[in-house]
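go over my protein:
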Amino acid sequence: MCLLQFVWCVYLEIQVKTPCRLHFGLIDLNGQLGRINGGLGVALEQPGWEIKGWITEKSDNKISLSLPMITVINRFDEYFSTTSNDIDFEILKKIPQHVGLGSNTQFSLAVGIILAKIHKIKTTVVDIANAVKRGGTSGIGVAAFAEGGIILDGGHTFGSGKQTESFKPSSISAAPPPPVIFRHNPPNNWQFVLLTPKIEQGAFDKEEIDLFSDNCPIPAAEVEKLSRLILIKILPAIVEKDIHAFGEGLTEMQTNFKQFGMNRYKKGIVHDLLNFTRKNQAIYGSGLSSFGPTIFALTDTDEKAKKIIKEVKDVFPKNEFNLILSSKINRIGAKIEKIK
């Protein structure tokens, strides 16, 4: 390899570190006002994907890549009319899949932004999300990647000829990422303890599709009460830095309103962990992220977070966890850098 080729390869090595996201719940699965979905969630510092991509001398990189990676590359190339057969990738860190942390969206956007940087395409995170087909139900993951913070999105237009014509999950929805109507960085000390028990994954594929089909539309009265809770209690608490009211609001969202996929958690470790978090004085609010099984617990100091984790390990000594950690809120989105 000549020196010029070597410099070219090194210069075009891009590394991306993503946040993960908690999804506190969808807001409107009724549709009478001509929109559906809308969601509330937060970006967290960890766990996150860490992925590198670079120009190679291979004629076809796809021989050694995983099917999810190939799918994202193919979607990107089709959307932007590019050819990425000479770009290779390495995964350094990952977010567990189908546990409620938004792994697929962060992965797809990370690969997409690496491809855009290497191809020198000036674009936006939203456009990349359109290319790799993410954000069709919730916009929390896309906004978390773009900017971080606590996020509220405005959902999609609903009906014949609109952005979405039926109730369906993002895995099969062709709708674009929804608009972000609220994004705020809360106090630096707010953080979440994450507890992911080693049990079956949350709903996805056919089970996820069936959950939307079987449970929608949600009664309008329930949607109205939830909207009031978010608008009048949760959002003001974030702006006013009131962790008590914010945590109460999150717990209310999780306990007073219908959640898809909760039937599987009526008993067992998830049920017991939720009961534990709601009795713990160091926790201001808790619940299940998306379809779970990851449980989140809101607190406000490193000491409290460590104490919560120790107590969980003491109370549930015979149970294994895929994930048990505390994480601060991500305030800037994904970190993107050129290597060397």
Q: What stands out?
A: The chain has ten helices and 13 strands. The chain has a mean pLDDT of 90. The longest strand covers residues 35-44.
